[in-house]
Amino acid sequence: MGDKLKVVVWSTGTIGRHAIAGIDAHPRMELVGVWVSNPEKDGKDAGLLADLGRELGVLATTDRDALIALQPDAIVHTAMADDRVFECIQDLIGFVEAGVNVVSSGPVLLQWPEKILPDDLLERIQRAGARTGASLHVNGIDPGYANDLLPLALTSLSQRIDEVRVMEIADYSTYYQPVVMGDMFGFGRPMDFQPLLWQPGILTMAWGSVVRQIAAGLDIVLDEPLVEKVERRAAEVDTPSVSGDVKAGTMGAVRFELIGNVDGIPRVVLEHVTRTAEDQVPEWPQPAEGGGGYRVVITGEPMMQLDLTHHGEHGDHNVSGMITTAQRLVNALPAVVEAKGGLVTALDLPLVTGRGLVSTK
Length: 361
What we know:
Keywords: Kinase, Transferase
Number of helices: 9
Organism: Nocardioides hankookensis
Strand content: 15-25%
Number of domains: 2
GO molecular function: kinase activity
Protein name: Diacylglycerol kinase
Domain 2,4-diaminopentanoate dehydrogenase C-terminal: 148-352
């Protein structure tokens, strides 16, 4: 199996804490450093920050340069990127330029950045990778496994494909991310509030990577621009939420689509149905189980539907959503380290499994 990969985790938030636990549990990995942005976490043990109930002997630091100086094999980057997209991209490129492989949960547009990022920025990533041999891979559960590998693997059963639709259907009331919930989605805000996410072109920037990567996997060329559709609904009653309660009359649910057409006909569609209570807008698509999950619908011959449901051992689907995002990155790390330098997409990787993680007790 060779030496263990030396890994740094970049942030200890809702995803980072699970990445620390995942690396600690992985037989091929050794946690050597943790970066934090909050000075109050500086010097604290990673195991305590990850709520493992024990110390790991690795102290968190706000010193970026000290972590790079460790010359780790890889960084698992889980810092919040939605509200600082281009600053975050510069951070990731800097890691590659320093010769460190990176797997990251964002910015999600890097999953498949063609037609989103300027060519000179993409060329910079590729030049850095060619020079240092380091790779950059952005993934998770959505955007990520639920709408790249999962739907593309399912299409291998198709005789004819008319449309591939990938969906997230979820109640976000237990999802703790106030900036995303309030500022970006607009949940709990007046219906006339115009959050960033619903501005023209932003859905394409955020999820266009999903639609275009599926199209690339199917060898089709989509019409440009992609088509954005958004329907928002007000909450009918006061609704509690961990990211800020949603009052009746304020925005409580949203359904959006990002549509990739070929000659005007929808061929690849991303759809999200996001509620802040399970009983909101019952006529919209419902999850197969519990408060949320992912669905792939392939229209064609044969007709297929695949539902992925999940929940945490000690929490609901929003907890397991963070775990699956972290573990998709952690488990892909060995393959990313072995990959060619530069940007690596899901289409570039071999089969990633949970090798080494089967319980022995």
